[in-house]
């Protein structure tokens, strides 16, 4: 973890603020890797690695939560670190956070100051089987709201027929905003 702290303190221009400076180092029992590398590393299937993981690091980046979406879609509990601790940046909201989804129930949300304790925090949560099971249930319940039904194969599309998808979620949020301004 000391190597991570040194890396986060290093001044590298744009990279100093990219993802609020959150980077990863190997820690026994942890394999923190980006899930969106292009091209993927040789001899590694990132989707399989993500599906086999309990937690997936999802620091802020240039998108609005693609790492978090990828983690949720593959059944991995997102570890969201989107606060640099300075108060200079507002917290980044995830998709439909607030009006439709309670990200605190399905993810682990940490601040920059929590990074040195990341392994112990995640080990404690992993040891709490009831809390871990609750996060997994919330993850499964939230997934349909993050998927675009029309982008899915026919079989998966049918499985979502009775559930609101991302399009329905956008429409609900917009209707809520319209009603709030009246």
From TrEMBL:
Top-level division of the source organism's lineage: Eukaryota
**Domain Exostosin GT47 spans what residues?**
47-125
Protein name (database record): Exostosin GT47 domain-containing protein
UniProt record similarity statement: Belongs to the glycosyltransferase 47 family.
Which range is the signal sequence, renumbered to this chain? none
Task: Supply the source organism for this entry.
Answer: Emiliania huxleyi (strain CCMP1516)
GO MF annotations, alphabetized: glycosyltransferase activity
PANTHER family linked: EXOSTOSIN FAMILY PROTEIN, EXOSTOSIN HEPARAN SULFATE GLYCOSYLTRANSFERASE -RELATED
